[in-house]
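In this supplementary section we document a worked example of the pipeline. Step one takes a protein sequence of length 141 as its only input; no multiple sequence alignment statistics are reported here. Step two produces a three-dimensional model, which step three serialises into structure tokens for compact storage. The input and output of this example are shown verbatim.
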Amino acid sequence: MALSPFHISVPITDLASARKFYGDMLGCEEGRSAEMRIDFNFFGHHLVTHVEPEDAAHKTTDIVSSGVKTPVRHFGVVLDADECRGVADRLTKAGARFYLEPQVLHQGQVKEQFIFLVHDGCGNILEFKGIPQERLFAKAL
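The serialised model returned by step three reads:
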């Protein structure tokens, strides 16, 4: 399956925090920017961060999904497990604040994945999943 880049726009508290997390900590290349926004190459996808502190200060509801506390409002990316572990290591060394610590879930099942959720310091929570793409939509056996 050939994937097309997605576009997502998210609110942030300030540009400096976005540059620190997305640029310095994640290593996302900065694209166009303006007084109140920055575009990032988020693992090949078009992420636009807009300074909107009130919206960025939202409260999210947590749900339990497959036994894991998950915020309803989040976004992220699916990577292979090794790349996902590398991102987790980089964020850990940089002092990122995890919402869900890096771990393997559903070991031995078709939905086995390396996963973590992290705060971006700008009001958003990101989910990183390390799972082969061919198993991403697979149904449990």
